[in-house]
Specification:
Layout: E1 8-12, E2 17-22, H1 33-48, E3 54-59, E4 64-66, H2 80-89, H3 92-97, E5 103-107, E6 110-112, H4 114-120, E7 124-128, E8 132-134, H5 148-155, H6 158-167, E9 171-172, H7 173-179, E10 184-186, H8 191-203, H9 207-220, H10 225-243
Helix pairs in contact: 4-5, 5-6, 9-10
The chain binds coenzyme A.
Length: 244
């Protein structure tokens, strides 16, 4: 693992909680290619680190979790084909979705584009009262491409997902909570304390059962009931084999 990240801060605590801070506050933590690469690197490092039980993502500064992909890099990749290949080879969002460790996002201020797509790859979203969550890509002539069109309707009703993505208008924290995109709303002052308490609870759970339950729940979003029940039986057998 690289010691010198430029765009993120990595902090590992003795209690099994690791914090990953998106650290470009001067551009509202916009996710540039370097940050995506560093997130890729740290995601693999924590996956391999038995001391890390839970990861919390947060944004540096006062104004945003992240204002999304760095728009100053749009159209600057070497070539469209090359940038698409790089994305396929290092599918950060897909990797987060199959993480065996629980992921928590602590969201303050703006969470736009990839700045809400990353939290949607997490298991929990704790948001501060001032959070604004939205997907503005269509207005820029793009569509969400870090999983937004597929993950959002799995959290909120399809009608709201359609509204958010086609208009680009963000929703507030209360709306996110009402429809299940956020798990809880807290004051800005309590955001990291709450996220930490939640992560502490998760870190105290048996890790194998936690990751098997996560895999079963993720499966339920994609499988037919009969297949989902089959998956649950297989995962339950693994948990049982370890428990006895
Ligand atoms: N990429 C690159 N830079 C960004 C950025 C992004 N996604 N979002 C914000 N910034 C930069 C701004 O360019 C500005 O830099 P500057 O001080 O050098 O001019 C700085 O962050 C502060 O943003 P600013 O626009 O001045 O703040 P604001 O309060 O007026 O507006 C937002 C806040 C979030 C509404 C606005 O920044 C915005 O719409 N950002 C783009 C969001 C977006 O489209 N993201 C999805 C991309 S697919």
């Amino acid at each position: 693992m690289s010691d010198a990240f430029q765009t993120i801060i990595y902090e590992k605590q003795a209690n099994g909680i690791a914090w990953v801070t998106l650290n470009r506050p001067e551009v509202l933590n916009a996710i540039n290619m370097q940050m995506r690469d560093e997130l890729w690197e740290i995601s693999h490092a924590v996956a391999d680190d038995p001391d890390v039980k839970v990861v919390i993502f947060k944004g540096a500064g006062e104004r945003a979790f992240s204002a999304g992909a760095d728009i100053s890099e749009f159209g600057t990749a070497p070539s469209f084909v090359e940038s698409r290949r790089a994305r396929q080879e290092r599918d950060l969002w897909g990797f987060l979705l199959i993480s065996e460790k629980p992921l928590v996002a602590a969201i303050q201020g703006y969470a736009l584009g990839a700045g809400i797509e990353l939290p949607m790859c997490c298991d929990f979203r704790v948001v501060s009262e001032d959070a604004r969550l939205g997907l503005p890509e269509v207005g820029l002539g793009y569509i969400p491409s870090a999983g937004g069109t597929q993950n959002l309707p799995r959290f909120v009703p399809p009608s709201l997902a359609m509204q958010m993505i086609l208009t680009g208008d963000p929703i507030d924290a209360a709306t996110a909570l009402r429809y299940g995109l956020a798990h809880r709303i807290v004051s800005r002052e309590k955001l990291y304390e709450e996220a930490s308490a939640l992560a502490g609870k998760l870190a105290s759970q048996p890790p194998l059962a936690l990751s098997l339950a996560r895999a079963a729940l993720r499966g339920s979003l994609e499988l037919r009931l009969a297949e989902g029940l089959k998956l649950e039986r297989a995962l339950a057998a693994r948990a049982l084999a370890r428990a006895v």
